[in-house]
Amino acid sequence: MARTFTTLTGRWLGRYEYDAGPGPVPFEADLIEDTGFLNGETTEGNTFRPELDGTLHAVITGNHSKGSVHFTKTYLGFEADDHPIYSGRANATLTRIEGRWFFPSQPGWAGRFVMMRKPGAAAERKAGDKAEMELSATGRI
User: Fold this and answer.
1) Which one in 61, 72, 94, 138 has a CA-CA gap of 20 to 30 Å to 104?
2) Can you give the CATH number for the domain in which 48 is found?
3) Does a structural domain hold residue 1?
């Protein structure tokens, strides 16, 4: 049975696709949700800025409310002030997010995205929580 989460906090694997253009671009995200506010970071292969290194990093800021997810992805090292906006829906167990992304000032740059919790991330976190509880019980923390 699939685990149900109460927040979007965790590690995610995702991909975004262009409505017209190159194939899907995979990315990884670390999200932190606190009372509906989302923060996080993404890492992806560089598929559109040849003058930069092979890996792009971005910061995510946004919100999550009743399954609706919205965030802005701000690429680090970019001088542009136009950043992609992501808008989607999380499933009931908060293990998958699907939706659309777009650049506000560039209507031709838009597409779909999907994110899934990274397999094993929940188990890793659970093992870490267990170890922390054991250390706490022994007074080592």
Assistant:
1) 94
2) 2.40.128.120
3) no
Q: What is the pLDDT of residue 112?
A: 97
Q: Which of 37, 39, 41, 51 is nearest to 14 (CA)?
A: 41
Q: Is residue 31 part of a domain?
A: yes
Long-range contact set of residues 67-73: C-beta below 8 Å, sequence gap at least 24: 67/91, 67/92, 69/8, 69/38, 69/97, 69/99, 71/38, 71/40, 73/42, 73/101
Altogether, the residues listed in the chain come to a count of 141
Q: How many domains does one find in the chain? A: 1
Beta-bridge partner residues of 8:
none
111 in a structural domain: yes
Residue 118's domain comprises 10-137
Tokens in use for 14?
């995702």
Residue 121 within a domain? yes
pLDDT per residue, tens digit, the chain (141 aa), is 578 899 999 999 999 999 987 789 999 999 999 999 999 999 999 988 888 889 999 999 999 999 999 999 999 988 777 899 999 999 999 999 999 999 998 888 899 999 999 987 554 554 444 444 444 454 444
